[in-house]
Design goal:
The complex is a heterodimer of chains A (337) and B (31). Chain A has 337 residues and is mainly alpha-helical. Chain A contains 13 helices and three strands; from the N terminus they run H-H-H-H-H-H-H-H-E-E-E-H-H-H-H-H. Chain A is globular and about 60 Å long. Chain B has 31 residues and is mainly α. Chain B has one domain. The chains are: A mainly alpha (337), B mainly alpha (31).
Chain lengths: 337, 31
């Protein structure tokens, strides 16, 4: 069953991402960079299999704990692969754009889908995605300031994962919603929207959703991540939305924000007189090929892994790396970050 | 039960360990 699902649904997506990577490399550079010839935009030599592997491990480990690959892939690209110029941001944004499609299809099939609920926060995300790249080109242009901002984001993600490790049991949904078709309903009245799932319902202010989407979108698109690391804790903590409901808004949000962010980096920035920040397209596509496989593998095995311990461990690692980035800004560390 | 399913609970840790090894390999040969 799993093998058939993989070959019918996932393999074509993965194959398409790899093919797009090769096409993008020839289109952008006239050759496929890798271990021998450096990626010209990134300025680093790295085998293509390593980029695919980065997508697999970041997509897998983060999806297992309900997060997305960007918040891990970004610092890994910067600190291990040494992709340090501004193009790392849109290149990772391409990964965060493509990565959630598998999950989106899966959630849509299971009924965890409502465009009315997702609309306000997604429109906010689109506005944030228009502004964030200007922050990246201005305020966060210096490498050390950008490292500091990534460090703060990692620290937030780390604290959230550690917090979730202790609190997720209470909010864990019953197994049923994942096994049979469910439905998330949404009714708008004025500026408020009532989202309901079974007998539960939440009354939300759409202006607040828009504001949260725009704020998170600005910060996330300036860094080059999907924004889930901020949006999920806000929805879960402030609005008390359970995970199986909030994904109906957060997954489309990450896709919309990443798409608008990529468009802004390539088209809007030059239209306003700034230099465009071109992504290393092949880098993003190769990583996304791995990411699609990794997040699919996570969705199949999530129920069998010790989630709490894993969250605590990943949260600890993320928090420590984030803290190192922040400390490095104020007191340069004796090793390269 | 298939032997592969017995490995599944340890898979995230195996993947993370492999990621560390690959990262060390990259730092050693490409930096």
């Amino acid at each position: 069953m799993i093998a058939r699902e993989f070959w019918r649904q996932q393999a074509p997506l993965i194959g398409a991402a790899l093919l797009l990577g090769v096409i993008a490399a020839y289109w952008q550079h006239g050759f496929v960079p890798g271990a021998e010839q450096a990626f010209p935009v990134a300025g680093v030599r790295v085998p293509v299999w390593h980029l695919v592997w980065m997508g697999i491990w970041t997509g897998y480990t983060m999806a297992v704990v309900g997060e997305a690959a960007g918040i891990f892939a970004l610092p890994y690209s910067m600190s291990i692969l040494q992709f340090v110029n501004a193009s790392v941001t849109p290149s990772t944004q391409l990964l965060t754009f493509l990565n959630p499609f598998g999950a989106l299809l899966g959630f849509r099939r299971s009924g965890q889908w409502n465009l009315k609920f997702a609309a306000a926060v997604c429109i906010g995300g689109a506005v944030g995605g228009l502004i964030g790249p200007f922050l990246r080109a201005g305020l966060l242009a210096a490498a050390d300031v950008f490292h500091l901002a990534v460090g703060v984001a990692l620290a937030i993600a780390g604290v959230h994962l550690c917090y979730a490790a202790f609190h997720s049991t209470a909010r864990r949904p019953p197994a049923d919603p994942y096994r049979r078709k469910v439905s998330i309903a949404a009714h708008m009245h004025g500026l408020r929207i009532r989202v309901s799932f079974g007998e539960q319902s939440w009354d939300l202010n759409m202006l607040a959703l828009f504001g949260v989407g725009a704020g998170v979108g600005m910060f996330a698109s300036a860094l080059g991540v999907g924004g889930g690391f901020l949006l999920v804790p806000i929805f879960a903590s402030l609005y008390r939305l359970p995970m199986y409901v909030l994904v109906a808004a957060t997954i489309p949000y990450v896709i919309v924000l990443s798409a608008v962010g990529l468009f802004t980096y390539n088209v809007i920035l030059p239209a306003f007189g700034s230099a465009p920040i071109a992504p290393e397209w092949a880098w993003g596509f190769f990583a996304a090929a791995g990411g699609i496989f990794g997040s699919w593998a996570a969705s199949k095995t999530q129920m069998y892994v010790p989630e709490h311990f894993l969250k605590l461990m990943l949260g600890g690692v993320t928090g420590v790396v984030g803290a190192l980035y922040v400390v490095d800004f104020f007191h340069p560390l004796p090793f390269r970050l | 039960m298939n032997i592969w399913w017995k490995v599944v609970p340890y898979l995230p840790f195996i993947v993370l360990a492999a990621a560390v090894l690959v990262a060390v390999y990259h730092v050693k040969f490409y930096w």
